[in-house]
Amino acid sequence: MATSDQYAGVRYLVDDVQAAVDFYTTHLGFTVRTAVAPAFADVVRGPLRLLLSGPPSSGARATPEGTPPGRNRVHLLYEDLDAEIDRLRAAGLSFRSEVVSGPGGRQILLEDPSGNLVELFEPATPH
Hints:
Elements: E1 8-13, H1 17-28, E2 31-36, E3 40-45, E4 48-53, H2 58-61, E5 74-77, H3 81-90, E6 100-102, E7 105-111, E8 117-123
Parallel strand pairs: 1-4, 5-8
Antiparallel strand pairs: 2-3, 3-4, 6-7, 7-8
């Protein structure tokens, strides 16, 4: 397990830093580490440090214009995916997919306020 200064960092470009902070802290269990809205905030959950870069941030400016968005997404584990989906739908959140099942487990894609994807994943239980 990583120590508090050994986070794995992922940067998401967001349209509204405060809306992103509210989304990740209210609905997905992240806590605020740093917030300098409207430019930047970072939130943490376990060893994951999610850097939320708004339009005025240097991180957002580093992406060349016209670069297509990646297909990356944050991957969060849940023991009861159905209960989590019900909770988030009741909060009015939008999903980009239905539940997909495979040999490793089940997943659904949640969309943050800027359209970034978050994969909610329930591992398959061993038989």
